[in-house]
Amino acid sequence: MPLVTPLLPDHDLETKELAEFFNETLGFCPNSVLTMQRRPAISKAFINLNKAVMANEGRVTSALKRMIAWVSSNSTGCRYCQAHAIRAAERYGAEQEQLDNIWEYRTHPAFSEAERAALDFSLAASLVPNQVDEEIKKRLYEHWNEGEIVEMLGVISLFGYLNRWNDSMGTSIEDGAVESGEQYLGKHGWEKGKHI
């Protein structure tokens, strides 16, 4: 059971309008946003931050950003965000072979060295204590420029917020996210957990 009950999508009309963004990324407005709108300033600020972070201004693709989000969410254990991130990666054109083998990104041939560097950065930056070191930096700079690294860390930081929000709230997970979680993550033990 969620800590706080989500409100109806039309509770705050400004949030509802901004939340149309999620119909493209996920196919629905997330219950996390519907909970945030109990304080509309938070829901609106979050949606605008999400849009800014997920905008593509370099070579970091929409699909890679969502895989970065998945690695970050997997490291923190947030099952809600794991399912949302893999669903969004699928909707944003991640290769089927990458989706099927996301758990093996470090060794699977579907992932490039540039993608591995980005995903390892996501893992290192999501751990507590933080594990970003000179080796991670060196590998990032072999493939990415500083603006792209900022984009990646924006995704990691956004999902740090979401992981804490959704795991603490026990946010109820939507059917579409469950479907994607079971399809791509279930073979490795993914389940809804507290996100009923």
SSE map:
Elements lengths: L12 H6 L1 H6 L5 H6 L3 H15 L7 H15 L2 H13 L4 H5 L12 H14 L7 H10 L2 H24 L5 H10 L12
Helix pairs in contact: 4-10, 5-6, 5-8, 5-10, 6-11, 8-9, 8-10
InterPro entries: AhpD-like, CMD-like
Protein name: Carboxymuconolactone decarboxylase family protein
Pfam families: CMD
Q: Can you tell me the overall shape?
A: globular
Question: Approximately what portion of the residues adopt beta-strand conformation?
Answer: under 5%
Give the C-alpha Rg.
Answer: 16 Å
> What is the mean pLDDT?
96
For the terminal residues, how far apart are their CA atoms?
7 Å
Number of helices: 11
Structural class: mainly alpha
Explain what the structure shows:
This protein has 196 residues and is an all-alpha fold. Helices cover 63% and strands 0% of the residues. Helix 5 crosses helix 10 (146-169) and helix 8 (113-126) runs antiparallel to helix 9 (134-143). The protein is globular. The model has no long low-confidence stretch (mean pLDDT 96).
Brief synopsis:
By secondary structure, this protein is mainly α. The chain has helices spanning 13-18, 20-25, 31-36, 40-54, 62-76, 79-91, 96-100, 113-126, 134-143, 146-169, 175-184.
Keywords:
single chain; 196 residues; mainly alpha; 11 helices; Carboxymuconolactone decarboxylase family protein; AhpD-like; CMD-like
